[in-house]
Design goal:
This protein is an all-alpha fold. The protein has two helices and no strands.
């Protein structure tokens, strides 16, 4: 085999290796970005649900307060249990 043929094959092999490296790196980056986005979306949903629950409690306390002219600590304690 001639030296030119060996040099050509090494060049082609190097180019193919680099092309595959960059393709795989791009795939992995997209996969990581998707996983991060999914995790973020999941955490935001958990936070939203927690806030909605807290708001429901606050609204029910406000309704209890507006429904009664005067109430004792004991009545409030029973209400929040």
């Amino acid at each position: 085999m001639s030296l030119a043929w060996i040099t050509y094959m090494l060049g082609v092999g190097t180019l193919l290796s680099l092309a595959l490296f960059f393709m795989i790196r791009a795939w992995e980056k997209r996969d990581l970005e998707k996983k991060a986005a999914d995790l973020t979306r999941e955490q935001v949903e958990k936070l939203r649900v927690g806030m909605l629950r807290s708001m429901e409690v606050l609204h029910s306390i406000a309704s209890f307060y507006s429904a009664q002219d005067d109430f004792s600590r004991q009545q409030f304690r029973q209400f929040v249990r």
